[in-house]
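INTERNAL AUDIT FORM
Audit reference: QA-55
Scope: verify that the stored structure record matches its stored sequence.
Auditor: D.O.
Record contents follow.
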Amino acid sequence: MQAPILFTVLPCYNEEAVLHSSIRQMTDLYTSLISGRSIHENSRLLFVNDGSRDSTWSIIEDASSTNPFVCGVKLAKNVGHQNAILAGMETAKEYADVIITIDADLQDDISKIPEMLQKYAEGSDIVYGVKNERKADSRFKRWTAMLFYKLMKLLGVNTVYNHADFRLMSRRAVEVLSRYRERNLFLRGIIPQLGYKTDVIYEDLRPREAGESKYTLSKMMNLAVDGITSFTIKPVRLIFTLGMVFVLLAIIMLIYVLCMVFQGKTVAGWASLMLSMWFIGGCILIGLGIVGEYVGKIYLEVKDRPRYNVEKEIIQ
């Protein structure tokens, strides 16, 4: 049986500090895998430049002229991590039998890639890289990640716990993924819906060799909101439930007020009235915000604009 052609997709955003090291480590790994006949000699590293403002693309171009493994896709503007990954996968599926996605900082353990390939050889179309622990992350990031996965499970969204975007996918799995046309992309929720045979490998997160993480708190929050609102309507149902609770409380208060009136014990309740107004007003605004989030998603989806535009490709 012929060894599979492997394309590894590495999204990059302002990664000049770590890119040389990442290229060297991945080149060493590919050389070893080819010599062991685990992958075909036409296998490549596909770096996706997601609108970087530093010298990331220049490094990719220079490396592609001297390193036969290095290829690149330059996106016309910054479109976000999830769209950059998808752009790389949709480009790679035209050339590869199997595709692995991993962040360019290589905090995920690349020594697990041979194990992923073995799972693929055994018949798995999707192999998830699941983290044993996140000691390389800050305490705040570990806590928020755990909270996010638990919230997604509570809301009924099918995700793989402690899995980010280090995964292997067969060509046919990526071709099916390409038919999912959501603008609000959350790959960690879409891919488990594909239905193909899956497996997992376990890894320990490594510290960054250089530079800083580009996943800021705001970006993590946006990803969480996309994940929740793209896969469940439970927040909207929660608003309805909250409204019913308020109606019940209003009936109880009506009974209480009538009792006080009949007993002649009515007392001016300015403070409680004002607090109630603020509380209910806040709940109304929260409810409108949640509904507005869903309406905004619909607005973006119906326009059906391209998720990314490719400015330049280097495929060798």
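Auditor finding: record pair retrieved intact. The chain has two domains: 6-215+306-314, 234-303.
Action required: none
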